Amino acid sequence: MSEEIVDEPYAPDVPVLVTVEALGRWLRQQIEDDEREYAIVALEGVSSYVREATGKDWLNQDGTAVVGVPQSIRTVVLQMAGRIWRNAEGVIQDTAGPFTSRWSEKVAEGLYFTPAEAEIIDRNKGSKRSGLYSLPVTMGGFDPDVLAAERDPYGEGWPL
């Protein structure tokens, strides 16, 4: 049994991290109505990629609006979506007569972070921390006798 594929306009389940209008400003061009759907698809793919890499979704409690996205993350999304927009086919080399243009081999891989973008993503990762860090601890209001009595099931008091 084959599954029927329905061709319907693209509507992302999760709001994109930047708007189509912001992408147009980034590209310094007006995104026309007939191009808007492709722009949304590109932004949704990049937004999903960035969310997965950071472990954050930047959504309100209802999941209906984007909140608190750092400008650096918005810039990464715009840079990546801009690469897709300018070179959707992932062309690595183009020759016209005696002239040749060449782009990075990474373009053929589809979505990718440049080294600078990867640093921004690392700085904005969720609660996963790596490396050496310290956690300050205070003992304000600590009473060892209360703690020992609460932990000793026989009421004899455990030495601390």
Q: Looking at the structure, what is the overall shape? A: elongated
Q: According to CATH, what is the topology of one domain?
A: Hypothetical protein yqbg
Report the span from N to C terminus.
69 Å
Number of helices: 5
- What can be said about the biggest beta sheet? 2 strands, antiparallel
How many strand elements?
2
* Strand line-up in the sheet with most strands: 1-2
Q: In angstroms, what is the radius of gyration?
A: 25 Å
Task: Walk me through this protein's architecture.
With 160 residues, the protein is mainly alpha-helical. The chain has a domain at 20-130: Hypothetical protein yqbg, CATH 1.10.3230. The protein has 5 helices and 2 strands; from the N terminus they run H-H-H-E-E-H-H. A hairpin with a 2-residue loop joins strand 1 and strand 2. The chain starts with 19 loop residues before the first helix and ends in a 9-residue tail after the last helix.
In short:
The protein has 160 residues and is mainly α. It is built from five helices and two strands.
